[in-house]
Amino acid sequence: MAVGEIGIMVRTTAAIRPLPNDVAAQIKSSTTISSLEHVIIELFKNSLDASSQKIEVSVDFSRGACTIEDDGFGIKPEEFLDTGGLGKAYRTL
Predict the structure, then answer these.
(1) pTM of the predicted protein model
(2) Terminal Cα distance for the chain, rounded
(3) Residue 85 near residue 79 (C-beta atoms within 8 A)
(4) Are 86 and 15 in contact (CB under 8 A)?
(5) What does DSSP assign to residue 89?
(6) How many CA atoms lie within 13 A of 4 on its CB side?
(7) How far is it, in rounded angstroms, from Cα 77 to Cα 80?
(8) C-alpha–C-alpha distance, residues 34 and 23, integer Å
């Protein structure tokens, strides 16, 4: 966390990095995303984790699609590159 111009604590976006091997070895996920509703719930949780104050959800059930936009602290653009950590197993912020 960093202190902003008016003295408010502001969360800074960190790089996605690998978990230590001993921590990764202990992970046993039981989360299964089996429906559009579950996708929406998990993305909404991500928005809350990003300290969002405003979250907009759009759902198109006929296409099985959804869009969630928020004002939270997002992922740095370089994390989307092949060299970034996004989408790789056992990573954290």
Answers:
(1) 0.61
(2) 13
(3) yes
(4) no
(5) S
(6) 6
(7) 6
(8) 26
48-57: long-range contacts (C-beta < 8 A, 24 or more apart)?
A: 48/72, 50/74, 51/11
Q: Give me the sign of the Cα torsion angle 35, 51, 67, 79.
A: negative
Element holding 2 (H helix, E strand): strand 2-3
Least-confidence region, from 39-43, 50-54, 55-59, 88-92: 88-92
Residues 6+ apart with CB under 8 A from 65: 36, 59
Place of tokens 């790789």: 88
Per-residue pLDDT tens over the stretch 51-85? 999 999 999 999 999 999 999 988 888 998 999 99
Spell out a b/e string for 32-53, using b for 16 or more CB atoms within 10 Å of the CB, else e: eeeeeeebbeebbeebeebebe
Confidence class for position 11, pLDDT limits 50, 70, 90: low
